[in-house]
Every structure is written in structure tokens, then in C-alpha cells.
Amino acid sequence: MKKVVCTIVAVLSISAASFAKDAVSYASWNFDVNMNQLSHYLQLSSGQADEVSDICVHFTDQMRSASFSSQKNRKEKFQKAVYANLKLMKSTLTEEQYRKYVRLLNVTMQNNGVTF
User: Fold this and answer.
1) What pLDDT, on a 0 to 100 scale, did the predictor assign at position 112?
2) Quick one: residue 113, left, alpha or beta (phi over 0 = left, psi -120 to 50 = alpha)?
3) What is residue 90's DSSP assignment?
4) Contact, 44 vs 97, CB < 8 A?
5) How many Å from the N-terminal Cα to the C-terminal Cα in the chain?
6) Residue 85: phi, psi to the nearest 5?
7) Phi, psi at 10, each rounded to 5°
8) Residue 44's closest CA among 100, 102, 91, 97?
9) Neighbours of 112 (CB within 10 A)
10) Cα–Cα distance for residue pair 55/39, rounded to 1 Å
11) Cα–Cα–Cα angle for 60, 16, 25, nearest 5°?
12) What does 23-81 look like in DSSP terms, one character per residue?
């Protein structure tokens, strides 16, 4: 009986920790974008760099706003922010730059535990 109770407690602790991790991952992610590194990685022209900077500021604002929304709406707001960002980036970047940006965004989101 003691083993069964210990097993149940362990399972509940692990599941509670995994739910807590999901709730914290959005709030703890720093949404700021290092434009120098992004510009260098994507090899942006000066005009593109200005547009991408504006898009990143808008994206950062949307992601921060989504992180403070209710748990019920958070995932949907994150999705809308990401898709809006991708749409704006696609119209600004070349096809190769856009591919690199999508890869970078996917890796960043996975590393920060943000999933849809």
C-alpha cells in the first residue's frame, strides 16, 4: 500500500510540474530581438533592416501582450502574433532570407518551449 501511495504522489508531482512548466515558458521568454545579429544572419539591406526592425518591434509587442492574456486565450494570441509576423516578413524578405528566418524562429520557439 505504501508503494502505491508513493507512486501516485510521484506521478501527480511530475504531471503538476509539466503543467507549471507550460505556464511559465511563455511568461519567462524574453521577446526582444537583437537586430544586429538578425541583420547579419539574414544579410539584410539597409531598407530591409528598417522594415524588419519595425516588424520585430510589432511582434515583440504582440507577444508580450499575449503572454499577459488569460490562459484560455494565450495560445490563440501567440499563434496570431507568429502568423502575422511571418506574413509581414514574407513580404519584406527575399525567399532565401525568409527561409532562414522561419528556421530561426522555429528553433527559438522550440528552445523556449513555445509550441502550438
Assistant:
1) 77
2) left
3) H
4) yes
5) 40
6) -65, -45
7) -65, -45
8) 97
9) 14
10) 13
11) 10
12) HHHHHH------HHHHHHHHT--HHHHHHHHHHHHHHHHHHHHHHTS-HHHHHHHHHHH
* Rounded Cα distance, 60 and 75, in Å: 15
SS3 of residue 93 by DSSP: coil
Cell of 61: 509587442
**34 pLDDT higher than 70:** yes
Question: CA-based Rg of the chain, rounded to a whole angstrom?
Answer: 19
Rounded to whole angstroms, the Cα distance separating 91 from 112 reads 26
How many Å apart are CA 47 and CA 53, to the nearest integer? 10
pLDDT > 70 fraction of the chain, expressed in percent and rounded = 72
